[in-house]
Amino acid sequence: MSNVYTYQEIAEHNTPKDTWIIIDNKVYDVSKFLDEHPGGDEIIYEQAGRDATEYFLDIGHSDDALKLLKSKCVGTVDTNSTPVVFEKKQEDAKTESQGNGQLAVIVALLCLVVGFYLLNE
Ligand code: HEM
């Protein structure tokens, strides 16, 4: 397979009907496979247009899964192209704002304690 795609071109294939993912700098068209995926469609779709190497390897897919994956290869990544910066997923953003909220509570409590201490001086 000699097609070479930039990160930007790959990122554009990010819909349920047209889903590409990158694994080990190879590009895979998994559009037709989403419904069949034993791990569910959502988990792959979340990585649509992105590099899913870490996610794919973390699961410890079987040799059969690897063979199946090979059959979906449509090309390779132009690793000299500029990587696409994806917006943070909602969940990440949520965790972050929760973190900020916790920090605000701690700071408020500290202020109360210090204030209380100063008033009683
Ligand atoms: C974002 C990438 C992917 C993630 C996060 C993911 C995740 C998972 C999960 C959670 C399971 C269930 C594991 C279990 O049954 O214990 C699974 C199973 C499976 N996945 Fe994926 N998957 C991904 C991509 C793919 C791709 C691209 C293929 C093949 C084209 C594939 C093929 C399979 C197969 C055949 C199984 C059944 C168990 C096995 O043979 O390893 N997966 N996957």
Automatic annotation (TrEMBL):
Query: In which broad location class does this protein mainly occur, judging by the first location in its UniProt entry?
Result: endoplasmic reticulum
The membrane topology term of the UniProt record is: Single-pass membrane protein
A Pfam match: Cyt-b5
A GO BP entry is: sterol biosynthetic process
A GO cellular component term found in this entry reads: endoplasmic reticulum membrane
Q: Which domain of life is it from?
A: Eukaryota
Record key words, sorted: Electron transport, Endoplasmic reticulum, Heme, Iron, Membrane, Metal-binding, Microsome, Transmembrane, Transmembrane helix, Transport
Write out the annotated subcellular location.
Endoplasmic reticulum membrane; Microsome membrane
Domain Cytochrome b5 heme-binding span(s) in chain numbering: 2-78
One GO MF term, please? metal ion binding
The membrane spanning regions, by residue number, are 103-119
Q: Which Gene3D superfamilies match?
A: Cytochrome b5-like heme/steroid binding domain (3.10.120.10)
Looking up PANTHER family in the UniProt record yields: CYTOCHROME B5
Q: Which family does it belong to?
A: Belongs to the cytochrome b5 family.
**Can you say what this protein is called?**
Cyb5 protein
